[in-house]
Write a structure and sequence with these properties.
The chain is an alpha/beta fold and 264 residues long. The chain has 2 domains: 31 residues, no CATH class; 196 residues, Rossmann fold (3-Layer(aba) Sandwich), CATH 3.40.50. The protein is 33% helix and 16% strand. It is built from 10 helices and 9 strands. The strands form 3 sheets. It has a 5-stranded parallel beta sheet with strand order 3-9-8-4-5. A two-stranded antiparallel ribbon has the order 1-2. Helix 5 packs across helix 7. The radius of gyration is 22 Å and the shape is globular. 32% of the residues are buried.
Length: 264
């Protein structure tokens, strides 16, 4: 009698109907050989793109109350239209920042593993967490990823912000436009630079497509990035998007750098 394996145990005769589709059988085999793992520490978890309990508890998730202008978390409850002292003095160009977590040694691993290509599937994890912020943007928003310069894109092979944007568009049904704004100048890595240095470098690094006004006029925009550091890059992009007629520009990102002083 001919027999074959069902799952991890049990047999059936050759004449019996299949109890499990072939793809599902192979999925079980792959899951057994390569079980889902926490994207931070690597321990086995119950599903893809899930954190283990320890890492989940140690991630610093950001929530209200936050500044209505820049989205920085506020230490105490405030009315929703409250602004931090910095934004009262110098309002940002964009209409707020929504970050999932505070940038630290753990959350940075997610961004770095996506950015440098070792775990491209993490774009889906980030997009899943960003979905809760979509309602904060008015109307039928357009997803616009922060662009990379073409030389960096050729070298890396992908833009992590585009990957996140695609996953968010797929999950929400929203439109994504990754060509409306482009990086016209190659800038040096900004890591380690002050906010003033960053602004000086990126202020003229981006440009709009000739038909940007037709694409954006009167529409809200969700500007997608992986990490929000000083806000220089996001502000430079938001300034151009507003120039093209975007009604609102809300920045969405995985992690945000927040100093202990800002965090209250």
């Amino acid at each position: 009698m001919t027999v074959s394996v069902i799952g991890s145990c049990g047999f059936r005769s050759a004449g019996q109907k299949d109890q499990m589709p072939l793809p599902a059988f192979f999925r079980l085999s792959v899951d057994y050989a390569l079980p889902p793992r926490c994207p931070i520490c690597g321990v086995t978890v119950d599903a893809d793109n899930r954190f283990c309990l320890t890492c989940w508890q140690q991630l610093d998730f950001l929530a209200k109350p936050w500044c209505a202008a820049c989205g920085i978390p506020l230490a105490f409850d405030h009315p929703e239209d409250s602004r931090c002292a910095k934004c009262l003095i110098d309002p940002p160009v964009h209409d707020g920042v929504r970050a999932v977590v505070r940038y630290d040694d753990r959350s940075s691993l997610i961004a770095m593993r996506l950015k440098y290509g070792t775990r491209l599937g993490l774009a889906k994890l980030i997009a899943q967490h960003l979905q809760k912020f979509v309602a904060d943007c008015d109307g039928d928003a357009i997803i616009v990823p922060v662009p990379l310069h073409r030389s960096r894109l050729w070298r890396r092979g992908f833009n992590q912000s585009v990957l996140i944007g695609k996953e968010l568009a797929r999950a929400t049904g929203m439109q994504m436009d990754y060509k409306v704004i482009f990086r016209s100048k190659l800038t040096p890595p900004l890591r380690g630079m002050s906010g003033v240095q960053r602004r000086k470098i990126v202020d003229s690094a981006f440009a709009l497509r000739a038909d940007a006004h037709e694409r954006l006029a009167g529409k809200p925009v969700l500007l997608i990035d992986d990490v929000y550091t000083s806000g220089s890059t996001s502000s430079a992009c938001a300034r151009l998007l507003k120039k093209a007629g975007a009604e609102q520009v809300l920045v969405l990102c995985w992690a945000r750098v927040i100093s202990d002083v800002e965090y209250g």
